[in-house]
């Protein structure tokens, strides 16, 4: 029973990792840029969630609607103002640009909010539902439900709409996308916006579970990179499965070995995947080559 | 229909097109021939807006397209079927065709155009749910041409149609191009395969080192002694 409990906790935790990683992977797959500031967008979303709660008394699940929109716009501004001018520059320029952005955002947060841990209090925060003797945390269950809904919506958007197909087309074969009339720059803008909106949603879902502090993004983005490599660079739905895998590995490692060893375990798996199947477990493409690295 | 006037194109320090000029009249098949690195692909990438020229002018139906973005040029009806097909390999044949109709002016005719493509290449309809990357080279070329036709082209530029295909299949595809021309679509055929291209073309340009070396009616060019020696091995 304990293993089953751990498995379910891991899957629910993995859902959040998946949401963060899917955003990162969309940006990586379409715009072909590793956004080192992705974790800081998560941090911003959580601070916004805190502000909506502290100043407006708004529940994080309600303010999620506004936060997704704000983060989408923030993504558009970042793409237009920072990424677009350096798209044709060497990979190192892009890395330093997003790394620089991440440091700026962290320090801005430190200036505004200090290094304090901030959290919200909701009536359902400690609630659990019992299902066949397994205790499931309500906030984690809600966040997992949201993740599943987003995965389905994203799937339908990418598979069934012309713009969704264009996003996939740009990630697969950029030159051919130009030649069928896709406005590739606009698709980059949209992909960056969606990627940051997804991490915004993840931030809102995390707020009832975690506290926010200026360097919070760094630890989550590290996990997201592991998930992206496991799932396959640029493979959106690979990131979903990868997220679930890391969540389960993290939970099981905490129970079987020691909570302190969980990161060691999934980083060992991360290195093994890089050595054995560098394109990622769920990747159909060419991995880093496919994302222009 | 398309007029290229004295264009120059460089990749960094290396100039690949030198004062190149050519014309594509409406309703014809015009061949752009030459060996590897002669400047053929650079010319058509300049037309499609993928590469930007450093000087000169490209006009399509009287409109200057030299500085237009690729998607704006597609919107005017100038469509390129690229070398090596460049299909979206992890999408189905049908998804590839649907993406061909991405431009605004083509979306209203999706149903009509997909029927036309399936009638022209029935194998594509039989395999419409298969991934494009899993198809044979010939079927992929059909899909690439079909994807081009989905955008209601006025000018269809086909780069290296014969590359990697069996001669019998090339013959079949060239016959299809004649049918496409008869439907009123102007074709620019970019090829290394001189003999077969001249057989279906009205006019031809031969490029050497980024310059037009020979031009003339296709029928006359087949008798050109330089062309015979350099490209036909005669």
From TrEMBL, chain A:
Keyword Membrane on entry: yes
Location(s), subcellular: Cell membrane
Entry's transmembrane regions: 6-28, 35-55, 61-83, 95-113, 133-158, 187-206, 212-232, 264-283
CDD domains xref list: TM_PBP1_LivH_like
Keywords assigned by UniProt, alphabetized: Amino-acid transport, Cell membrane, Membrane, Transmembrane, Transmembrane helix, Transport
One GO MF term: transmembrane transporter activity
Cellular component annotations (GO), alphabetically ordered: plasma membrane
Biological process terms in GO annotation: amino acid transport
Topological type in the membrane: Multi-pass membrane protein
Top-level taxon of origin: Bacteria
One Pfam family from the record: BPD_transp_2
Stated family: Belongs to the binding-protein-dependent transport system permease family. LivHM subfamily.
Protein name, UniProt field: Branched-chain amino acid ABC transporter permease
Biological source species: Psychrobacillus soli
UniProtKB/TrEMBL annotation, chain B:
The keyword ATP-binding is annotated on this UniProt entry: yes
GO biological process: L-amino acid transport
One Pfam family, short name: ABC_tran
Sample GO molecular function, one term: branched-chain amino acid transmembrane transporter activity
Top-level division of the source organism's lineage: Bacteria
Keywords of this entry: Amino-acid transport, ATP-binding, Nucleotide-binding, Transport
UniProt keyword annotation of DNA-binding present: no
ABC transporter domain mapped to chain residues: 2-234
Similarity comment text for this entry: Belongs to the ABC transporter superfamily.
Protein name: ABC transporter ATP-binding protein
Organism lineage: Bacteria, Bacillati, Bacillota, Bacilli, Bacillales
């Amino acid at each position: 029973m304990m293993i089953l409990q751990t498995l379910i906790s891991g899957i629910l935790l993995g859902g959040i990792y998946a949401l963060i990683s899917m955003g990162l992977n969309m940006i990586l797959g379409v715009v072909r840029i590793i956004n080192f500031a992705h974790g800081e967008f998560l941090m911003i979303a959580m601070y916004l969630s805190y502000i909506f709660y502290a100043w407006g008394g708004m529940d994080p699940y309600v303010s999620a609607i506004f936060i997704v929109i704000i983060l989408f716009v923030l993504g558009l501004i970042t793409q237009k103002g920072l990424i677009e001018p350096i798209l044709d520059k060497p990979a190192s320029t892009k890395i330093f640009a997003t790394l620089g952005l991440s440091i700026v955002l962290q320090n801005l947060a430190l200036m505004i909010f200090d290094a304090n841990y901030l959290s919200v209090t909701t009536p359902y925060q400690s609630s659990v539902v019992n299902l066949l003797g397994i205790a499931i945390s309500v906030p984690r269950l809600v966040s997992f439900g949201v993740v599943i809904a987003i995965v389905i919506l994203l799937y339908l958007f990418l598979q069934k709409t012309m713009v969704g197909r264009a996003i996939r087309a740009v990630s697969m074969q950029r030159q051919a996308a130009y030649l069928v009339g896709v406005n590739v720059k606009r698709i980059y803008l949209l992909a960056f916006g969606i990627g940051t909106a997804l991490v915004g949603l993840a931030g809102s879902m995390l707020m009832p579970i975690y506290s926010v502090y200026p360097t919070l993004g760094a630890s989550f983005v590290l996990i997201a990179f592991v998930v992206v490599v496991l799932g396959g660079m640029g493979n959106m739905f690979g990131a979903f499965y990868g997220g679930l895998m890391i969540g389960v590995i993290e939970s099981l490692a905490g129970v079987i070995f020691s909570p302190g060893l969980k990161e060691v375990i999934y980083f060992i798996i991360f290195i093994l995947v890089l050595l054995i199947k560098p394109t990622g477990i769920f990747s159909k493409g060419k991995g880093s080559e496919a994302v222009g690295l | 229909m398309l007029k290229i006037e004295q264009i120059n194109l460089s990749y960094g320090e290396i100039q690949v097109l030198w004062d190149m000029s050519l014309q594509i009249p409406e309703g014809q098949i015009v061949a752009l021939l030459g060996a590897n690195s002669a400047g053929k692909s650079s010319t058509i990438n300049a037309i499609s807006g993928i590469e930007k020229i450093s000087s000169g002018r490209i006009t399509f139906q009287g409109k200057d397209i030299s500085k237009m973005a690729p998607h704006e040029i597609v919107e005017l009806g100038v469509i390129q079927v690229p070398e090596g097909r460049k299909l979206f390999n992890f999408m189905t044949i049908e998804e590839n065709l649907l993406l061909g109709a991405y431009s605004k002016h083509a979306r209203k005719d999706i149903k009509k155009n997909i029927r036309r493509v399936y009638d022209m290449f029935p194998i594509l309809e039989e395999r419409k749910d298969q991934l494009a990357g899993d198809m044979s080279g010939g079927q992929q070329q059909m899909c690439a041409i079909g994807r081009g036709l989905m955008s209601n082209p006025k000018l269809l530029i086909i780069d290296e149609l014969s590359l990697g295909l069996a001669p019998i299949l090339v013959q079949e595809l060239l016959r299809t191009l004649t049918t496409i021309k008869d439907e009123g679509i102007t074709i620019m055929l970019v090829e290394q395969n001189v003999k077969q291209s001249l057989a279906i073309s009205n006019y031809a340009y031969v490029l050497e080192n980024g310059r037009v070396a020979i031009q003339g009616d296709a029928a006359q060019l087949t008798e050109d002694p330089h062309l015979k020696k350099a490209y036909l091995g005669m």
